[in-house]
Amino acid sequence: MKKLINSADDVLADALKGIEASDGNVRVDHTNRVIYRAEAKDSGKVAIISGGGSGHEPMHGGFVGLGMLDAACCGQVFTSPTPDQMLEATTTVDTGAGVLHIVKNYTGDVMNFEMAAEMAADAGVQVETVLVADDVAVQDSLYTAGRRGVGTTVLLEKIVGAAAEEGQDLASVKAVAQKVADNGRSMGMALTSCTVPSAGKPTFDLPADEMEIGIGIHGEPGRHREPMADAKSIAKQLVDPILHDLDFTGAPVIAMLNGMGGTPLIELYLMYGEVVALLEAAGIKIERNLVGNYITSLDMAGCSLTLVKADDELIRLWDAPVKTAGLRWGL
Amino acid sequence: MKKLINSADDVLADALKGIEASDGNVRVDHTNRVIYRAEAKDSGKVAIISGGGSGHEPMHGGFVGLGMLDAACCGQVFTSPTPDQMLEATTTVDTGAGVLHIVKNYTGDVMNFEMAAEMAADAGVQVETVLVADDVAVQDSLYTAGRRGVGTTVLLEKIVGAAAEEGQDLASVKAVAQKVADNGRSMGMALTSCTVPSAGKPTFDLPADEMEIGIGIHGEPGRHREPMADAKSIAKQLVDPILHDLDFTGAPVIAMLNGMGGTPLIELYLMYGEVVALLEAAGIKIERNLVGNYITSLDMAGCSLTLVKADDELIRLWDAPVKTAGLRWGL
């Protein structure tokens, strides 16, 4: 294993130092491993929290800032944060208007966020939760009952952050979140495994002439393996299962062509071109897009496609100003 | 070789389709392989052009837009664009106020930009050129007489773009460019080789327990190879040669901790934390920073550090609004 780290045990603690030094939008609670917005609390605003295992950067810490998250709870690499971290974050960011928890559907995350929400309620904080379970690849998975939560999380955090910023109340923010979660679908693929620092070797072996279709963001098994193919064929294998699962015609679509961490941008642009051609042929119009590394899987090579079937409200919220390390516009 | 491409011959042409589809700031001339700003020419503004081999994304095409480049000439992967491309771009963007060519110091780029500048002058366009040669690793290299041009190019394109946007004339824009070029230094390292699509195999072999210090962005040899080390030691091997080359104390510094394409963001943040600690110990204050993939080398794992010794004028230009796929703030 060759990685730019000091030791497998210190990856998260050391990375948090770099995040704090580089990103003027945030402050880091190193004891609880929570990343907060740097500016003072906006009184009366619904607060938005997410969190999960590390190794998916810039998600979630890179999405803390004006117009997006108020706090991100950082677990160790590919490990859920604890209920204590989530409770600390929840009580810290609450302005009295309540807190929305954005939870990706993995068993550990779901259980821990549930426990934190109960404890926060006992402490007098109103908490609502939205569960993201958008991965059409598999029904159940290594770490999940039901679909895995992947790329829609990024788009949801942006849109819901804007709703909170403009002063919507907790019920309304929750409704926006649920609309995004209900209308987002993702599908991923891998050319290589990732290597978890504490394991020291690749999570799985993938022969030099094969790829895995339907991979999860922790290297969980996908749908099947098959011989390496060209970008056009791969794009079709991402687009088809998504369109099979939800009808995206007749609505503005927000698309994300996401890199898994080890794939260069030139390939992501190329893949995006192929995806656009397929969607146009299917009569689907992309109104907004992201191309790049937004929800990664350490050093895995590969990509994923996320489509959110939007409406005028979601597009308006998407376009609202955001100022985070990972997404920034309008400010 | 496993890559998200259709064929080695079509990588650039296909990627340009995706860039055009994703980035509303640009339009693409597919015949000449030039990426232009989408909006109409700003009459009287000095135009800024750069270009080079592809495979370093988001540089340069991802830096076309308001406050940065007016055009980027795209060569094939790791291959200089031709004088014809550069001439076409130069005459297209000129508003009568002249054009600055930003050239990285590689023999092919230098020769072709010189030829294009002469042809443009014959056509009545005033052209000035700034050469970036900031890599402290080696004096001469595989594709270079003199130092290679690397990370300072990114910071220079941002700063000079702002100078042009605020209406500075060609001589003044050139002077700003030269100040950045004179005060920027970089040093890189690699954990793995990159694989050029047309070659189909890694450019070099690097054993599983070794790294290369002083690597170039095309996989050109660096200073030496040595056993893999921890992030602290690697950071020192990047910082020391830069500080040995130029005194950065007493000035505000703009820093970039750049990924080579195959290294995940969590490792780049971690490395940035180590670099900040070393610079603080040396009495050097980072005023602005970038952490991420900005000048890459296809799928190479590794990173580079760039420091620009700035002053109030350069910091002011750095902070000016920019709206490109790769850098965006203030708008």
From TrEMBL, chains A, B:
It catalyses: dihydroxyacetone + phosphoenolpyruvate = dihydroxyacetone phosphate + pyruvate. It is an enzyme of class 2 (transferase). Residues 7-329 form the DhaK domain. The keyword Transferase applies. It comes from the Bacteria. Keywords: Glycerol metabolism, Kinase, Transferase. One of its GO terms (biological process) is glycerol catabolic process. GO terms for cellular component: cytosol. The keyword Kinase applies. GO terms for molecular function: glycerone kinase activity; phosphoenolpyruvate-glycerone phosphotransferase activity. Its EC number is 2.7.1.121. Pathway: Polyol metabolism; glycerol degradation. Homodimer. The dihydroxyacetone kinase complex is composed of a homodimer of DhaM, a homodimer of DhaK and the subunit DhaL. This is phosphoenolpyruvate--glycerone phosphotransferase. It comes from Tessaracoccus flavus. The lineage of its organism: Bacteria, Bacillati, Actinomycetota, Actinomycetes, Propionibacteriales.
